[in-house]
């Protein structure tokens, strides 16, 4: 049952439904968000916890009406004054059942003892944990071809991400066993804020959206799982990160590294950018956080994306097909080129010593030079 489940629902109203479920030792817990068609005033939210881990759950849960983009309840008095003839649910009986095709959901809502109606849906959770379906560009299969390709690109249009393994595009948060982003925002961030800001010279005011983004980006760059993905404006920096890690043991001739290229300019011009991870429909948006307490960001020409989506590849593919465009491309280069590529990148000034200011970067660069074999 663990996962991020999404889909359309029907019944006495229609719209979209997202359920994010985390798994614990003896139970599941999560949060359901109901986005009603035509309702731009607020949304319905249910938080739940099961008593066991069976595949079929029946629960009675309170229903909260909250504002979009932030987990803040709309007062019932405000709802009554704004919509005097509308009945808003106070609780719901929810039925969740795992089937081969997905998660079957039905919910009957009530205002106190008055039944308001039922909605139902069959939700899916994508293929984020399966092998990537992206097909690498067949015309660019070597370092030389890649350099030729990026040398002729339109300036400042694309951003890049390098990965040492041919895995799906997925945030570090979604690669963990967690899916509930509200829990991340409500629990993780305050805990980390208390710990991290005691070790920085700058106090991050999380009420300020710019400083909040900078704080999340700082966590990301220091290894804490977040719903951010690191990108760079430089294809050469992305290449460095793809080749940076050398696995232990023998490496077969078939091993590849992966470089993603994303059409940043088209995406920002054509798709609404959203900077929240709670009470929002699925989205993938680009951030340009200020590099507060983060000296690595500038030399890495860093930019990042923020997303509520576990299966990013599938989401970008669906949006692209609907627009008849390709926003995301991928290139795979042979790992056997690693030594030659890193040597050339060092001559360009793209090396650990420049990308990671400080002792760690200097030691990593000298390790590569002196122990390259």
Q: What secondary-structure arrangement, pairings included, does this model have?
A:
Layout: E1 3-11, E2 15-23, E3 28-36, E4 43-49, E5 56-62, E6 64-66, H1 76-82, E7 91-99, E8 102-111, E9 114-123, H2 143-151, E10 158-163, H3 181-196, H4 209-221, E11 228-232, H5 235-244, E12 256-263, H6 264-270, E13 284-287, E14 302-307, H7 312-323, E15 328-334, H8 338-348, H9 352-355, H10 359-370
Antiparallel strand pairs: 1-2, 1-9, 2-3, 3-4, 4-6, 5-7, 7-8, 8-9, 10-12, 11-14, 12-15, 13-14
Helix pairs in contact: 5-8
How do the helices and strands follow one another from N- to C-terminus? EEEEEEHEEEHEHHEHEHEEHEHHH
- Rg, Cα atoms, Å: 23 Å
Low-pLDDT parts are none
> Can you summarize the main beta sheet?
9 strands, antiparallel
Helix content: 25-40%
Tally of individual helices: 10
- Order of strands across the main sheet: 5-7-8-9-1-2-3-4-6
Question: Helices and strands: which structural class?
Answer: alpha+beta
Number of strands: 15
Quote the average pLDDT. 92
């Amino acid at each position: 049952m663990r996962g991020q489940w999404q889909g359309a629902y029907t019944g006495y109203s229609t719209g979209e439904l997202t359920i994010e479920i985390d798994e614990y030792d003896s139970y599941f817990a999560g949060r359901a968000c109901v986005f009603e068609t035509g309702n731009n005033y607020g949304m319905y939210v249910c938080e739940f916890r099961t008593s066991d881990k069976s595949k079929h759950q029946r629960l009675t849960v309170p229903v909260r009406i909250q504002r979009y983009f932030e987990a803040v309840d709309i007062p019932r008095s405000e709802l009554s004054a704004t919509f005097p003839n509308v009945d808003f649910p106070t609780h719901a009986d929810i039925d969740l059942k795992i089937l081969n095709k997905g998660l079957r959901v039905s919910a009957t809502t009530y205002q106190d003892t008055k039944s308001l109606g039922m909605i139902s849906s069959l939700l899916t959770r994508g293929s984020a944990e399966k092998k990537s379906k992206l097909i690498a560009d067949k015309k660019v299969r070597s370092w030389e071809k890649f350099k030729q390709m990026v040398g002729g690109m339109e300036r400042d249009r694309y951003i890049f991400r390098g990965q040492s393994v041919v895995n799906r595009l997925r945030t570090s948060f979604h690669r963990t066993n967690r899916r509930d982003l509200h829990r991340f925002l409500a629990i993780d961030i305050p805990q980390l804020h208390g710990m991290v800001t005691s070790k920085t010279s700058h106090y991050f005011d999380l009420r300020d959206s710019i400083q909040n983004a900078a704080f999340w980006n700082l966590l990301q760059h220091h290894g804490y799982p977040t719903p951010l993905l690191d990108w760079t404006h430089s294809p050469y920096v992305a290449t460095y990160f793809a080749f940076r890690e050398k696995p232990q043991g023998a490496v077969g001739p078939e091993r590849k590294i992966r470089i993603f290229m994303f059409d940043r300019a088209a995406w920002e011009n054509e798709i609404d950018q959203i900077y929240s991870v709670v009470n929002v429909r699925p989205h993938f948006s680009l951030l340009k956080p200020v590099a507060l307490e983060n000296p690595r960001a500038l030399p890495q020409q860093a930019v990042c994306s923020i997303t509520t989506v576990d299966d990013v590849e599938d989401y970008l593919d669906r949006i692209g097909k609907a627009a008849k465009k390709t926003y995301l491309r991928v290139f795979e280069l042979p790992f056997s080129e690693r030594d030659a590529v890193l040597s050339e990148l060092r001559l360009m000034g793209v090396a650990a010593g420049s990308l990671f200011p400080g002792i760690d970067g200097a030691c990593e660069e000298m390790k590569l030079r002196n122990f390259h074999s």
